[in-house]
Amino acid sequence: MYTRLYNARILTMAGDMQPIWGEIWIENDQIIYVGEPKPSEIHWDTERNLCGNLVLPGFKNAHTHSAMTFLRSYADDLPLQDWLTKQVFPMEAKLTEEHIYHLSKLAILEYLTSGITANFDMYLTPDSIVQASIDTGFRTVLTGAVNDFSQSAALVGEWYQKYNGYHPLISFELGFHAEYTTSRGILEDLAALAVLYHAPVYTHNSETASEVRSCIEKTGMTPTQYLDSLHLFDYGGGGYHCVHVTAEDIDIFRRRGMSVITNPASNLKLASGIAPVQALLDAGVNLAIGTDGPASNNCLDMFREMFLTTALAKVRENDAAAVDANAVLHMATVGGARAMRLTDCETLTAGSQADLIVLDLNQPNMQPMNNLTKNVVYSGSKQNVVLTMIAGVIRYENGSFDVGEDPEEIFAKANEITRQLRAQ
Amino acid sequence: MYTRLYNARILTMAGDMQPIWGEIWIENDQIIYVGEPKPSEIHWDTERNLCGNLVLPGFKNAHTHSAMTFLRSYADDLPLQDWLTKQVFPMEAKLTEEHIYHLSKLAILEYLTSGITANFDMYLTPDSIVQASIDTGFRTVLTGAVNDFSQSAALVGEWYQKYNGYHPLISFELGFHAEYTTSRGILEDLAALAVLYHAPVYTHNSETASEVRSCIEKTGMTPTQYLDSLHLFDYGGGGYHCVHVTAEDIDIFRRRGMSVITNPASNLKLASGIAPVQALLDAGVNLAIGTDGPASNNCLDMFREMFLTTALAKVRENDAAAVDANAVLHMATVGGARAMRLTDCETLTAGSQADLIVLDLNQPNMQPMNNLTKNVVYSGSKQNVVLTMIAGVIRYENGSFDVGEDPEEIFAKANEITRQLRAQ
Description:
Two copies of one chain form a homodimer.
Chain A: E1 2-10, E2 20-27, E3 30-35, E4 46-49, E5 54-57, E6 59-64, H1 80-92, H2 97-113, E7 116-122, H3 127-136, E8 139-143, H4 153-163, E9 170-178, H5 184-197, E10 201-205, H6 209-219, H7 223-229, E11 237-241, H8 247-255, E12 259-262, H9 264-269, H10 277-283, E13 286-289, H11 302-317, H12 325-339, E14 356-359, H13 372-379, E15 385-390, E16 393-397, E17 400-401, H14 407-423
Parallel strand pairs in A: 1-4, 1-5, 6-7, 7-8, 8-9, 9-10, 10-11, 11-12, 12-13
Antiparallel strand pairs in A: 1-2, 2-3, 5-14, 14-15, 15-16, 16-17
């Protein structure tokens, strides 16, 4: 299968931030050429004249809980503890594998509309999430969510073995829910796995001020310092949220080559705070962006997150020059791919996976064209996404999906599951 | 001309926040019926089966500087003073009436894509803005922008007389740029006009902390107290931004029946701060939402502003229950109409102007339908706007515009003007 996208502005994210005008050639799931128009004897199965529209690498949603779509708009406007204990946990306790399968598919549809080509998903069990991603053609990196109440270090180790190499769209990373939900024994078992596999470890980290306070009271250390002292990060890894990290924590992230995944909308909506993104950038830490789950955001929209990442940094630092648009676009693409170890999905270059999106510039919010990357980050919207391709397959184009099932059916199932769970 | 929208979920904003299922009948520019399906002998010129999609009053963009589209993505990531003095002011000095006409049209296209049916526009001169709105069929309330460097109280008075009653889509309110740009003599002249016409007065107010500090140093009063002492607000009015208002200021807003127009994205991007929206709500002050101009936001997107209004209140108050979705939706529709004195554009009820929008619920971000108003505020997007109607005329539908000129021409003119101004 050969695909050619031509007459395009292409932001490869491999060089400077200036789009080139040219074309992209794809063989099966791989990019084989990016550059100026040139003759070819290839018989193209699929061609698209992009009429000057902008191609860039797909966004990587580097932290989410996809299947929580059923809780969207169910339990908002509540204090965090009530939200978790009265609404989220009791509903989640009723979920089956089949529920998680359909609810994950709903999230995948939404990712496609927002130009997201891969997610870093943490949820109760991996099996049905893996199946939902394979069936829809979506790329998913899973991470373990072991804690005192679900999963186990042994299970996470099994999944790590099973799901790496299982399917080209699927990979698995070691991970646990959070320091405050996971006792030391489990953490030590997980650290042993990290050392055994030379593998990075991921977790929710320093999301709220009270979480950090409690950890210091208990261990004399911040969560980052405590977890690092247990050797969890000997081979790197990453932290989701990291709103309340200290300068010493940031230094650990830097030294260990770890990533921070920021989740600005969720941190606002749950009143957690604003992450120190500028300080992390200054320290040279790899940054990525996530939507968090649909129960706490509630939108799975990378454009919202990108604007928030820069805008919140500006108000936090009291400096309108903080965290510029190019830095944000880097986080949403290259930074995400690095955090998720999707090394062949970082840029649009020959040899990379064909995970890419096309943005319609022929819309009022993209005009005038003073600066394309600023337009994308500051005024871009899901409305501009006209094509989303994963592993060489167009999964979303001009509002239509190609995911192996009618979206209306996926919506109907999500509504039916939600009704069932609420009635139980 | 008779129009019928049927098979719709209708959120009238007149009663509780539960949508009804039924239809809307429109005669010329006016709604004549909203309710359950019933027989009629009317010959319909236009009919739309909305297939269960959601109709609600159009959003009111209650503070903007539309023609600043030419500065979008031109001067971002700069400290406020550099942005204003090195980029904005020198470029604005070159603008002609014809430039403002075309640049305002570009903004109007963007309003339509975001479900905005009216704007409260403050800019250098009103004539070409009025013409752009009339020519595109857009509803605009203008406000004076007198200050020490442009316009005059006398001119603002003339425009007030000229543009109220000039055209059904146009009205004009007294206004000045800001306390810090306008000397006392001009303010007193404007206050005399307010008293003469029994008219409200609008201005940028307490946008930055330094503006408030300077006013206190100069007058011993906050901007709100100082302006009120000059009788500018004897007949009400409103403040744009109001990030740094005190409890005493809020009490003046309440007593004078004034409106606060919040501009959350702009306040972040220019590092101005987060407005005390919950305190204003608690005091019973009418609240509205504005995008501010495209140079400081940069998107003219009411969905972004609605999410930010609630999310920033939550993090500011450290309370995930602050400023709920229904309150935000009220600000974006009814509150905006009240701030702009568009009393016949508040709700979808017989006798009101047919200014309304249709949101596509058949999209992943609107599923499942646990709560429609929360879905709109927390996960809604421009992508969901499938129809925008102003004064009974469909101006935007399924991505196509009906504004008397080809959008491509408007884009081309905006780019040409921008090139010219940058080259001069």
